[in-house]
Design a protein that fits this description.
Blueprint (H helix, E strand, L loop, with lengths): L1 E5 L6 H9 L16 E6 L3 H10 L3 E3 L2 E6 L14 H9 L3 E7 L15 H32 L3 H18 L11 H8 L10 E6 L10 H9 L6 E5 L1 H9 L3 H10 L6 H12 L2 E7 L3 E8 L4 H8 L1 H5 L1 E7 L1 H7 L2 H6 L4 E3 L10 E6 L2
Parallel strand pairs: 1-4, 1-5, 3-9, 5-6, 6-7
Antiparallel strand pairs: 2-4, 8-9, 10-11, 10-12
Helix pairs in contact: 1-8, 4-5
């Protein structure tokens, strides 16, 4: 699962990517500095993993990860191929969620591609380009479906109605994610088309250091503009995060954060936010060899969770021994949890909860 960082040129995307991945993506003060997407596999910060490590004292600890893609800046006309637009849009299509970076700071030394700072205009520029690409997708599909619908094919007629609904909405400036569908219609006709504007989105307001805690007037404009989108808005001082990232010493980083009034790095919140945006959650395995966080979809069953470790675990699944994370911490060890009767045995229909500590029994 991948989250793609998008935005206009020079809004701080590559700097943010560097903060998240500790990679050094090229970052410069001019458009199209980034052409090929940079990809980073990022550890998901999780204090629960540290607590389990302190109790189990394993040989190694393996955190959950999320893949972040730094996609080059989009410009007006990208849907028509402007500024290498086709390549950029193809890169966005391959991601599962969008982290949309908006410039919410003033700085005369950093050029803006449109000459002035206006996050709402910037958001609309990107939205329009993505919507135009989706409109192209809808129109191509409609050409095929209409022919089948005319022959009396009921399924094609149903799909035609859904596609026309999407077309009308996009032409009104509404993204696919904001359109209401029944669950069946969405799964049958919308989801397979992989519309770009159907991807879940988080707006990352890149602010100056003084606005890192409370935001600023630009951030309030963004919050107001997206209030009907069911999208999360995160305030992040990307330049400051980059400075923090340069410090090797953990204590120094914490002191820096405290000085500007933050309890943790904003990049950690962003990574967790991206993980949630991708509909992901974590379960743990805990033993002396390894304490590990495993990534599963929210709503996954016990066999599906087992299959993340190895396909044989899912094929030959018998049962799962499950300890709630809170019980593991409260009692301090697996043996004490068992003694207290707090370990549960769950079968194939068990829906895994975030934070479950699990052990699988299987037979192949």
């Amino acid at each position: 699962m991948k989250a793609g960082i998008v935005g206009l040129p020079n809004v701080g995307k590559s700097t943010l990517f560097n903060c998240l991945s500790n990679a050094k993506a090229q970052s410069a003060n001019f458009p199209f500095c980034t052409i090929e997407p940079n990809i980073g596999v990022v550890n998901v910060p999780d204090p629960r993993l540290e607590k389990l490590e302190s109790l189990v004292d394993p040989e190694r600890v393996m955190p959950a990860t999320v893949e972040i893609v730094d996609i080059a800046g989009l410009v007006k006309g990208a849907s028509k191929g402007e500024g290498l637009g086709n390549q950029f849009l193809a890169n966005i299509r391959e991601t599962d969620a969008i982290l949309h970076v908006l410039r919410c700071f003033d700085n005369d030394n950093i050029v803006h591609v449109d000459g002035s700072v206006n996050p709402i205009r910037d958001k609309e520029t990107i939205d329009i380009e993505l919507q135009l690409k989706d409109l192209e997708t809808v129109e191509k599909k409609l050409d095929k479906v209409k022919r089948a619908a005319k022959t009396g094919n009921k399924e094609a007629q149903k799909e035609e109605a859904i596609l026309l609904k999407i077309k009308d909405a996009i032409e009104s400036g509404i993204s696919v994610r904001a359109i209401e569908f029944s669950e069946d219609d969405y799964n049958d006709f919308v989801k397979p088309s992989q519309f770009i504007t159907d991807k879940p989105v988080m707006y990352v307001c890149n602010v100056d250091e003084g606005s890192a805690v409370s935001g600023n007037a630009y951030v309030e404009q963004v919050r107001d503009a997206v209030k009907n989108e069911k999208a999360e808005v995160l305030v992040l001082a990307v330049g400051t995060e980059a400075d923090i990232n340069e410090l090797d010493d953990y204590e120094e980083r914490q002191m820096f954060l405290q000085d500007i009034g933050l309890d943790e790095a904003g990049s950690a919140k962003l990574i967790r936010g991206a993980y949630k945006l991708l509909n992901q959650q974590t379960y743990f395995t805990a033993g002396v060899k390894e304490v590990r966080a495993w990534t599963i979809d929210i709503g996954a069953t016990a066999p599906q969770a087992a299959g993340v470790i190895h396909t044989d675990f899912e094929k030959g699944f018998i049962r799962a021994e499950v300890i709630a994370y809170e019980d593991y911490i409260a009692f301090g060890s697996e043996s004490k949890v068992k003694e207290a009767g707090k370990m549960r045995v769950e079968g194939k229909n068990y829906i895994v909860k975030d934070g479950d500590v699990m052990h699988f029994l299987f037979n192949v």
